[in-house]
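# nightly structure sweep
# worker-07 picked up a monomer target from the shared queue
# config: single-sequence mode, recycle default, output format = structure tokens
# input follows
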Amino acid sequence: MENILEITLPIHTVSEANISEHWTKKKKRHDIQKKAIWIYFKKEKPEISLPCRIKLTRIGKRKLDDDNLPVSMKWIRDEISSCLIPGKLPGRADDDKRISFCYDQKIGKEYGINIIFYCALQ
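# output follows
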């Protein structure tokens, strides 16, 4: 597989498993995360072929536990999958076997998400 696209977006993620907050605050954060991904796909219209592997790297002021990292990316993963496979119910496109995800994280001054798409050459 070849790295065909790499982007970094200023999206703030948190450990959803370890945070206790009002549902409206969570929903607002989730909506912002999903909208940032959706806007990128609508504006740039990247040509991503399936199957592909997607590496999501969280950039934050501190690292999360390895079990909290994937949970912090749930809404980003769902929206990327929905953009790649439109027409499925919300949150269901990421169960497609042609898409796989891996996760990483690094320390940075600003919060963000780095996304790398690895796809087979056609």
